[in-house]
Amino acid sequence: MRRRLIFADRAEAGGLLAARLQDLRLDHPVVFALPRGGVPIGAEVARSLSAPLDVVFARKLGAPQQPELAVGAVAGVIDAPEIVLNRRLIASLRLSEAFILQSVGRELEVIERQRDQYEAVRPRTSVEHPTAVVVDDGVATGMTMQAALRHLRRKQPTRLLAATPVAAREAAAMLQREADAAVLLSVPRRFGSVGGFYRSFTQVSDEEVIALLGACNGRHTSG
Fold first, then answer.
1. Is the full-model pTM beyond 0.90?
2. Residue 3 pLDDT grade (very low, low, confident, very high; cuts 50, 70, 90)
3. What order of strands is seen across the sheet that includes strand 29-33?
4. In this predicted model, what pLDDT tens digit does every residue of 133-177 receive, in sequence order?
5. Which of 39, 95, 49 is nearest to 72 (CA)?
6. Which residues pair with 82 in a beta bridge?
7. Would you list the DSSP string of 54-100?
8. What whole-number distance in Å separates Cα of residue 34 and Cα of residue 40?
């Protein structure tokens, strides 16, 4: 698991991850993908497991002038969000509580827009199923995945799994703590960025997310 795998694209990574999950013989799984990049992975997993494909809304909180540097993450809904913070990093950057609150509010607004966009093609199922499988295309700091797992844990699934093609070592340890089990294809010694483990790592659009959700769940939208 420590060897460095390079995936052709998300479809290949999702297929390999699905094969690993099939070996577990999961009981009535529901796949929850983090939008947007996790959805092509989740689609492959859902098809392989004959499971519904849903999304779990989680967003990174970026540092000022360094939006890719995660100081936290938020998941869930606007009236009861799950917030995860890297307090050590926040203190070292001297970020104010006001900045954090503004960031949380801004990302929750994005989540609400996504929820409206995807609602028509999401499955009519509940997380109260035996197994919830939370999927992303890779886990670097793990903050968005951690927020997503904690949000879904509130809904008390019988079993909560985290699954991803590649994770940094510290993030992998976090996934083992937060989930009942973690399925990881690769945990390399040197990480860098998630995109570095894919030969093709194009941005996933909302239109692609909607198409994949609709195809997996037999639901369609017009327009």
1. yes
2. low
3. 53-55, 29-33, 131-135, 159-166, 181-186
4. 999 999 999 999 999 999 999 999 999 999 999 999 999 999 999
5. 95
6. 75
7. EE--EEEEEETTEEEEEEEEEEEETTEEEEEE-HHHHHHTT--HHHH
8. 10
